Amino acid sequence: MSEMGDNPDTERHADAEESGDVTTPGSDAAADVTASSSDAGADVTPSSSDAGADVAADAGSSEIVEQVRTALRGVSDPELGLSIVDLGLVYDVELEGERALVTMTLTSPGCPAGGQILGDAKRAAESVEGVAEAEVSLVWKPFWTPDRIDPKVRAMMGF
């Protein structure tokens, strides 16, 4: 998420047709981490089987994130007829358990298709096996410019 800067301005997008799951980042960013040790001052080191499970979980998470990105390629900006991924509108995809967190923008704050695009992005992310829920966060920084379009697509468009 380093592309977005340390303190991105966000806007909560509430579309009457949507269920209200489009939110700003960081609204429920809390995680519980617990460890136990028989020695109060001892370092807690995971066993090799725990470390292997963590690596497998990370690999599974990475695979699901890539599947979400692939699903988002199927979402098009209806005015431009291009994928939101190819347009560079999707800034980040993360996975917290079975919850996909998609951070994206629109081509302009007044985009008339914004509600449709955000709803389609949410449905696409939730269509991926292993994703029970998706949260789409709409941000305006960094502001979208045509420079964010995939270079191959930009060349095809003559930019």
| Average pLDDT taken over every residue | 74
Number of strands: 5
Tally of separate helices: 3
Low-confidence runs of at least 5 consecutive residues: 1-56
Summing up helix and strand content along with how strands pair, one would put the structural category as: alpha+beta
Largest sheet: spatial strand order: 3-4-5
Helix fraction?
25-40%
Strand content: 5-15%
What would the principal axes of the Cα set say about the shape? globular
Give the helices and strands as they follow along the chain: HEEEEHEH
User: Termini, distance in Å?
Assistant: 26 Å
The biggest beta sheet, please?
A: 3 strands, mixed
Gyration radius, rounded: 19 Å
Structure, explained:
The structure is a single chain. The protein has a three-stranded mixed β-sheet, with helices on one face. A two-stranded antiparallel sheet has the order 1-2. Mean pLDDT is about 75; it is low at about 1-55. It contains three helices and five strands. The protein has helices at about 50-70, 115-125, 150-155; strands at about 75, 80-85, 90-95, 100-105, 135-140. The two termini are about 25 Å apart. With about 160 residues, the protein is of the alpha+beta class. Helix content is about 30%, strand content about 15%. The radius of gyration is 19 Å and the shape is globular.
